[in-house]
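User: Can you predict the 3D structure of Protein YihD? Sequence below.
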Amino acid sequence: MKCKRLNEVIELLQPAWQKEPELNLMQFLQKLAKESGFTGELTDLTDDILIYHLKMRDAAKDEAIPGLKKDYEEDFKTALLKARGVIKE
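Assistant: Sure. Here are the predicted structure tokens for Protein YihD:
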């Protein structure tokens, strides 16, 4: 499992970091942490924060988070009826 997450972080990190080659890795990670709103110590920055921030970094502000997108319903009434089992998927 850790190998999959490591590969995902590297896959997302490489193109983003290449856009800012003047920064070393730690400076770039600090920049990502600050952009994501993380205020703790850099050693406490989780891979989840990095992954979601890198995925959403260039996305529109109103775009759904990738992990939640599959469950997203545009219409509240439809979502409620599906949750109650009235509408089958």
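The chain has five helices and no strands. The helical segments are 2-18, 25-36, 47-56, 66-69, 76-83.
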